Amino acid sequence: MSNGSHEHAFSEDQYEEDKDDESSMGNLLQYYKNSETHPRRNRKRSNQSWPVCLHIAAIFLYGLIALLVTYHMNKRHNTVQSLIYSPANEILEYKTQLYDLDLLGDSSYFGTPSPQIDKNWHELMAPSSIHLSKSERQHYDPKSHVVQFPDGTFLGQLMVYHELHCLKRLYQYINSDYYFPNLTDREREMNKRHTEHCLGTLRQGVMCHGDVSVITFVWGKHSKVPLGEFSNPHQCVNFERLHKWALDRAVVDGLEPGVLVHPKLGEPSFAVR
User: Which of 49, 130, 227, 263 measures 20 to 30 Å from 30, CA to CA?
Assistant: First the structure.
C-alpha cells in the first residue's frame, strides 16, 4: 500500500511537473512569437513615421533658408559690396536720405564769404589726410613710393575728401576777389587750371557714383513747364559714421617741421616753421 501510495504521489507530482513544463514551453513559444511579430510592427510604425519626420525637417529647412535670405536682404540694404579695397570698407553703412535743395544754397558752406563759412569748411576737411598702416598700404601699387611718416605709417586720403576739396575750390573760385586777390597772370592761369581739374574730378565722381534715385515732375501753379520734384529719397553713405572713422586716423601734424620731408628735395615750402 505504502508503495502504491508513493507511486500515486509520484505520478501526481510528475503530472504537475509535466503540466508546468507544458506551460513554460507555451510561454516560451509565445515569447518567441512576440519577438518575431513586434519588431515587424515597430518597423512598420517606423516606416510610417519617416514621411512625418521628413516633412518636419523640410519645414525647418525652409524656415532657415527664409531667415537667411531675410538677413541677407536686410544686410544689403545697409551695405553695398565693394569691388575695390579700402580701409574704410568695414565701417561703411548706407541709408536713405532726402536732399535739402534750397534755391538759396547751403549757407553753412556757400554764400557771401565769411570767417564762419571758412571755419565750417576747415572742420569738414579736417580728416582730409589719414594714416595708413603697413598692411593697408600693401593693397596699393607696390612699385610706388608712398610717402611714409616717421612713425612708420603712410600718407593717404579718401577720395570723398578730395571731391569736397574740389567743391570748396569751386566756391572759392566763384569768389576769387575774396580768396585770390592780387594774383599774377601766371597764378591766375594756374588757379584756372586747378579749378578745371576739380570740375573734371567732380564730373567723374558724379558719373562714378551714379545716383539712380528718380526725380518725378509735377505741374506748377504758375508755370506751364513741368517742375522737378526732388523730394524722393536717395541711397547715401552714412557720412557721419565715415567722418568719425576718418577723424580717428587723421593726420594732425602733417605741417609740422620734420614730418613730411622729401628724401631729395627736403621739406615742402608750406611747412610751419
Answer: 49
